[in-house]
Amino acid sequence: MTELIKSTSPSCPQLMSLNSALETFPPAVESCEDEVALCDLLNVRTLDWGFDTLAHPTDDLLAIVTEVFDYLELPVRFGIPRDVLLRFLEQVAERYNENPYHNFSHAVDVAQITLALLVRGEAIDLFTELDVFVLITAAVCHDVDHPGLNNSYLVNTRHPLATQYNDSSVLEKYHLDVTGSLLADSQTDIFCGLSHSERLEAWNSLQQIILATDMALHKEITDEFRERLGSGSMLSRRRQHDRLLGLKMVMKCADLGNVTRPWEVGMPWSHKLAEECILQVLLGAALDPSSAAPSLARAHLR
């Protein structure tokens, strides 16, 4: 397959520059009949750092995130039936709410950045195939059914979710529960092809990766990573703890990665995040009518 990519015509922009990265984890494209179909299936957009997720409707987003799974050969490598994968992704998409920022577009954006970091950034060399499968799953599901409110708001307003999860990583634990309910259903269980031991490892890793998106844990995780780099001790693929630290860092970089995209692509995401924060302020106005925050928030929305 790598040789076929190398022989691809110049009509497929950027493929030639990605040959070295593709050597590490070439995509599955056995059904392609010609170079045009090959370029179509690989679709360089899945590796493009300037890719604009916001320019695509939900149907396109489902196709894009399916491409991410296919690019890494995850359905083939882990025996995921096509109908199960598609139902899983459709159900995940339906469970994302229409928040300004934490929506299905964000989930696909994070999955696309994750793929780019794995392939173009060559982070994939650190991980096992199962690690990569779990990481992509986490990227897609890490904010599923997000209410558009942050953990502090949920805790301070005594939201039922805060009570349920003991005020600790409230949203992240909820996203895990929603993901777990999908994996518990045979119709949407993309882990169905895993052995018992692989499934236990996958679920443990999935928990740690999604919990790592809690910004309350940001300093702890980044400090550990920085100390490892400073000590001159590289992360090792042979050590599970090292791989988990690497998985957490890739997830965190992808989750916050839209701000590193080209200005015209990244700036709209900043506006959407600000809008969601402002809506939270307005929702909390009833708790403290004397606060100046609601009037300031309304001014920003004008």
UniProtKB/TrEMBL annotation:
CDD domains: HDc
SMART domains: HDc
Residues annotated as the enzyme's active site: 102 (proton donor)
Residue ranges of every copy of the PDEase domain listed in the record: 30-302
Coiled-coil ranges (or none): none
PANTHER family assigned: CYCLIC NUCLEOTIDE PHOSPHODIESTERASE (PTHR11347)
Protein name as annotated: PDEase domain-containing protein
Species this protein is from: Cymbomonas tetramitiformis
